[in-house]
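User: tokens in, sequence out, please.
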């Protein structure tokens, strides 16, 4: 019990240090992993975080049991909704930020641009990682 109960003491727990982020290199054009000599090519740092971001934006959230409920994007919930274009863009921006900020290596999402043209959704944004800034176009 404290004399001032509304003031909480500072936590003495150390923030866990994140290791070097690793991911399999991805061919974004053909949507397949990259192999060399029969083994997957491993990338690290901001390129690896970029691969993770691209893959999670392409994965519908809550659909596949193999992924946690934190992985994926809820963009599909906008399909068929009678929302205005402004509301769709606002919700899409929120979904993108929620999707990407679940990764502890991503500290910010900026300059989100969402374009709906007929049946195609185009997303571009700038992701601040612990390794530097990355541009994403999906």
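Assistant: Sequence out:
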């Amino acid at each position: 019990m404290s004399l001032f109960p509304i003031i909480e003491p500072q936590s003495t727990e150390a923030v866990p240090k994140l290791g070097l982020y690793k991911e399999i290199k991805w061919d974004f054009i053909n949507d397949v992993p990259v192999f060399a000599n029969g083994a997957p090519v491993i990338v690290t740092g901001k390129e690896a975080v970029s691969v993770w971001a691209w893959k999670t934006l392409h994965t519908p959230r809550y659909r596949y049991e193999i992924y946690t409920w934190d992985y994926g994007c809820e963009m599909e919930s906008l399909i068929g909704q009678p929302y205005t274009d402004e509301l769709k863009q606002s919700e899409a921006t929120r979904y993108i930020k929620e999707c990407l900020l679940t990764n502890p290596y991503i500290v910010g999402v900026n300059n989100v641009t969402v374009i709906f043209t007929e049946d195609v959704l185009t997303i571009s944004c700038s992701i601040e990682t612990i390794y530097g800034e990355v541009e994403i176009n999906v």
